[in-house]
Design the sequence.
């Protein structure tokens, strides 16, 4: 960021995992971007700020050699800017064309969702995140 962001030290990383929404609400009230020291992350929680950042790679580069994504999976095109990003995007773009989604991915996701919904129906009640959203993710 071009200016110093506030640093928050009293948010546990586990808080972000357990229920991030109260944390996000607090951070949104503080500033457009806030560095959460325990998580070693700068969080941007407002849609307009995220959009501005995504459209300004000269100021807000996606290149982050210390990224957990890079450490776990190796460099990905999501952590690259410009021409390097374009190469990765071009490679996967055919998988996300509307026809490919309609003919290939939609039936697979529909089947997965239907199975999860059937499981929900059988139990009668459930935490929708744990029973539906997390398995789809």
Sequence:
């Amino acid at each position: 960021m071009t200016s110093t962001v506030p640093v928050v030290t009293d948010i546990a990383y586990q808080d972000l995992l357990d229920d991030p929404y109260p944390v996000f609400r607090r951070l949104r009230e503080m500033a457009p971007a806030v560095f959460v020291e325990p998580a070693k992350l700068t969080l941007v929680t407002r849609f307009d700020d995220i959009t501005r950042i995504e459209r300004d790679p000269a100021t807000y580069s996606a290149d982050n050699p210390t990224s957990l994504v890079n450490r776990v999976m190796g460099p990905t095109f999501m952590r690259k800017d410009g021409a390097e990003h374009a190469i990765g995007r071009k490679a996967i773009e055919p998988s996300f064309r509307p026809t490919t989604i309609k003919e290939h991915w939609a039936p697979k996701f529909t089947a997965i969702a239907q199975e999860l919904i059937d499981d929900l129906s059988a139990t009668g009640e459930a935490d929708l995140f744990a029973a539906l959203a997390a398995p789809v993710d």
